[in-house]
Amino acid sequence: MEFVVIVTNSAVKRLRVDIMDSMEKSVNIPSRIVVAWHPDIEAAHLTASEIAADLQRRSVDHAVSYSLNDSRFRTQLRDGKFDFMIALGGDGTMLRAGKLGAPVGVPVMGVNFGHFGFLVETQRDEWRARLDDLFSGNWEIDRRMMIHAEHYRGEKMLDSWEVLNDVVIARGLSLRPIHLFVHVNEIELAEYVADGLILSTATGSTSYSQSVGGPILRPDMRNILLTPISPNLCVDRSLVLPDTDTIGFTLGGNVEAIISPDGYEGGFLDFGDQVRARASEHSAQFVRFGDKGIFYRNITRYMQRNPTIKGEYRS
Questions:
Q1: pLDDT tens digit sequence for 118-147
Q2: Which of 13, 39, 126, 248 could form a disulfide with 67 if both were Cys (CB 3.0 to 4.6 A apart)?
Q3: 159 catalytic per annotation
Q4: Active-site residue identified among 83, 91, 142, 262
């Protein structure tokens, strides 16, 4: 028996509408724009001034440029003075800018002044064309899940962080492995004896986690990835957890450990200290200009060329 399926023009049009609705197309043209540059890259500073001047010629309501480290920039961003950010630098700059913009819902367009540029779509000689796309509404928002982590000693919370890449718990000055008891949703998962553990987002899956054998996740996936570092006679595979899980770490043994959120110094963990982590209520928002294959092309290109080996990397 044969079946014939007839698809009408109206059905095709509805299908196209459904596909478009599934993407986060931008409908709002930004009017209060800040251009933020990496403070150690002079060329980025000069280009930031050019971009701000170009925005002013386009009759943008408010366009200014600041160093990422400028306290005025951070204060105005927190106070809701901007609805859009253009960040000039490398991947580290994009991580910082994305985390700063996430709590206030400000999307970030990156312009690459680094060497990797894994998170950055626009190259430094393309920014004028991208501004044309921006003000024509030809852009989309790429939302990236973040992790909220807290450090406890007893019932007292010592610190907390919002991370876009990963939270790393690792051995400190001692060469001995650390002992970590891991719970998921308050259910005991495992005891790890290892150099450390990495808790990463899908964005961070191509960073430290990948270098120690973890899987690569597509960056828009809302998962939490748990990857051990040099485990000794214990679970040696990564675990991919849903964003609804809460993960707890308790430091055992008598070896001091350190915690590093997104590569920064977070502090020391003592015996009995706990780290609790879950998906953040905020998401970083990166601006994309319709290149659906950028992640897959970058994976292929950058896995074959590592500028860090030559000392070229700058974030």
A1: 788 899 999 999 999 999 999 999 999 999
A2: 39
A3: no
A4: 91
